[in-house]
Amino acid sequence: MAVNFNLYGKTAIITGASSGLGEQFARTLAASGARVILAARRMDKLEALSHEISNAIAIQMDVSDKESVARCFAELEQSGKKIDICVNNAGIAARTPIFEKDDKNDFMSIIQTNLMGVWYVTKAVANHMKNYGIHGSIINIGSVNGNAIPAKGGTAYSISKAAVIHLTKTLVGELSPHKIRINCISPGWFRTPMNGPDIEQIIPLIPYGDIAQSSDLDGLILYLASNEASRYVTGSTFTIDGGMSWGGKL
Ligand SMILES: NC(=O)c1ccc[n+]([C@@H]2O[C@H](COP(=O)([O-])OP(=O)(O)OC[C@H]3O[C@@H](n4cnc5c(N)ncnc54)[C@H](OP(=O)(O)O)[C@@H]3O)[C@@H](O)[C@H]2O)c1
């Protein structure tokens, strides 16, 4: 019998849907039938995307701000939304070298967005799913920098992603009795605004010999979003990186 990746009748919220991987996740989930809630700070980008995707709405959310997250979830609940899938994708990156005198507060901003943002949204959506009896799927976006290969000069980014990977495991015990699953994807390198034009220089360091294509996470996001396909999968981190973690030379 064919595996069911059909998401008709399901609603997904995607943070950081205004750009890069988040935009791609939104397109992929919507193409499989899900209603999508596009969340980020830049409403102009979200609204433009919501006009392209069927069954999409945009909501302004700053994941680093607990009040902003709480306000959005209250609004969504007031309008009767029931969320089945949450993709914790919003993130920022900056270098935080230890010998640099002025780090422009980058360290705390990265932790506040990449770790606290995931915590605030996960707490809000897990409570929502529990209260409405939804057997939901939470998908965190980590990074290869959080598992096998920390980024040199990028301590804050690497530890924020390592923490997200560990948060994914830590919450299994509390979420599983409510049949809420939580998993993590650790991507390698993608051509998104986060990486900029210099990304091509990394190609010789990737065993598979190329930067990832924007569609390379489509199958995994659908698998993890679908309760039928990944019913028994929780607490897992999936690395998609062209072999970088095991054969790379970063
Ligand atoms: N690209 C890669 O190679 C790569 C590899 C591994 C992991 N990742 C991870 O994948 C995720 C997406 O990265 P990307 O490459 O797609 O980056 P991107 O193109 O720069 O997009 C980042 C997204 O996060 C949103 N965001 C940032 N701060 C936010 C905040 N405080 N509140 C709400 N939204 C916020 C941005 O939207 P607004 O500015 O509109 O708020 C934007 O939509 C990140 O978590 C990143 O760490 C990326």
Overall strand count: 7
Number of helices: 8
Radius of gyration: 17 Å
Tertiary shape: globular
Structural summary, described in words:
- The chain has helices at about 20-30, 45-50, 65-80, 105-130, 155-170, 170-175, 220-225, 245, and strands at about 10-15, 35-40, 55-60, 85-90, 135-140, 180-185, 235-240.
- With about 250 residues, it is of the alpha/beta class.
- It has one domain (about 10-245): Rossmann fold (3-Layer(aba) Sandwich), CATH 3.40.50.720.
- The longest helix has 26 residues, at about 105-130.
- The chain starts with 10 loop residues before the first strand and ends with a helix.
- About 45% of the residues are buried.
- The model has no long low-confidence stretch (mean pLDDT about 95).
- NADP nicotinamide-adenine-dinucleotide phosphate binds near residues 19, 93 and 194.
Summarize the structure.
It contains eight helices and seven strands, in the order E-H-E-H-E-H-E-H-E-H-H-E-H-E-H. It is an alpha/beta fold and 250 residues long.
Structural features:
single chain; 250 residues; alpha/beta; Rossmann fold; seven-stranded parallel β-sheet; 14% strand; globular; binds NADP nicotinamide-adenine-dinucleotide phosphate
Write the layout of secondary structure elements.
Blueprint: E1 11-15, H1 20-31, E2 35-40, H2 43-52, E3 56-60, H3 66-78, E4 85-88, H4 106-131, E5 137-141, H5 155-170, H6 172-175, E6 181-187, H7 218-225, E7 237-240, H8 244-247
Parallel strand pairs: 1-2, 1-4, 2-3, 4-5, 5-6, 6-7
Helix pairs in contact: 1-7, 3-4, 4-5
The structure holds NADP nicotinamide-adenine-dinucleotide phosphate.
NADP nicotinamide-adenine-dinucleotide phosphate binds next to α1 and α4.
